Amino acid sequence: MKKISTAAAFLALATAAFSAAHPPNVYVRSMEPVNTADPLMCQSCYDARVVQLIYETPLAIDYSARPYRLAPGICFLPEVSEDALTYRFRLRPGSKVSPDDIAGVFRRLADPAVASPGSWLVKNVKSVRPEKDAVTVVLHEKSHVFPWLLAMSNFGVPLPDGSGTGPYTLASWKKGHALVFRKNDSSPFWRDCAGTNAFDEIRYLLVGDVSTQWLMFLKGETDFLGEISRDNWDAVITGDGRLDPALVREGVEMYSSPTMDIRYIGFNMRDPVLGKNKYLRQALSSAFDFDAWRKFYNNRIDRIGGPVPPVVEGCLDEPSPYSYDLDRARALLAKAGYPGGIDAKTGKRLVLTLLLGRATQDTRESGELLASFFDRIGVRLELEFCTWSAFLKSVNEGRMQLFFMGWVADYPDAENFLQLFHSKNVSPGANHAYYVNPEFDMEFDAAMDAADPEERNRRWRRCQEIVREDCPWIFTHSARMFSLTRPTLGNYIPSDFPYGQERFYRQKR
Fold it and tell me: Hey, what domains does the chain have and what are their CATH numbers?
């Protein structure tokens, strides 16, 4: 009997269902849960997608340029003083946003009463002065990445009434179900934008389960799929790594590339068991079996030897000194005071707890796989599941022992990853491991002060060496992007910075 692929079986039913399930002039995609549409409270990449549809930022990231580069947003690219401490941002003509509105974002980000997760963005800001048609910002210290910060979602600028000047407005938000955005015809973006056939409406369907996301895409209920379910991988991708012919015949396209993305198991450095025991952290890192982990993820991930992904300039090329090695893991565990996983003082087995922000099947299975790695050296790992918002709250408050998290680049620079370890950025900043090392801070600060890119990269490499030795994280992987588009979607370009970029998509019928 001829074998029929899962894709072919569903596609036999999809064509008739598509026209009824998917209205014209509407872009639909599935999305992980979103917590906020407030730029000040934006903390995840899913929040950022929402924020940058509604609000403009002072600067933007060029949609099509590779390597990535900055582009004007509300403002033109800045004029920079000779000492690289003063930046003047002139507003573009016709903007509804005022210099006072932009200055207000700086003030609110810095306000401790607001407690914005983006407060770290303005820690280096000495003063902000609104002028007639510009904003002048003075820094305490030089920062070659400062202009990139103003393209981030936390710098989304609201008008005095709280509304935005972005390309879309939020028409409805049914918690846990869907967000609907409608085209904001008064946005300066559409005045300046060339081309037609932009989507009149955007719908984010909040679906946490990746298998459900896949089935919705296959049935034609969504135009885009950002992640292929691990369980459906073999039904989508052939043995030679190509897209299933049934999907190709339907006009589905697949995009694949490495990403500026890292995933890690973080250790709470304030935890009494883990924080002061470097040998224990090194032992657990050495027990992490990347080859088994990669197999679990259908070879859709890349190995990382530290906190900076391979596609970012300044990344260390060599593997981590604490890559998978069970003999070394057991020896380090004994040095840590837990020979064979047994506490030498109490005679009890070492038990650790991993906090996870989702309870999907994939999350459970990956947690169980990690537990099996630790079990090989005699350490028991218990899994604790919670909602994403509860997870972020626990991590920000340091109420965890180990936690599974990721970081998606805000801008294409090694600094964006290494600032996750600077003492000035401990939670609720981006340093969720509560890692503090004066030598690291010194090298990081020297890199930021360096005018020469070669010296800066040398310092970045030293920062990575320090972090790899201290092991505040287990460096699990960098994800590879595999996305699918239906033939209804045009002008899609994969990006590490996709926030609000649906404005550039075009409908094809």
Answer: 23-36+166-252+486-507 (3.40.190.10), 56-155 (3.90.76.10), 261-480 (3.10.105.10)
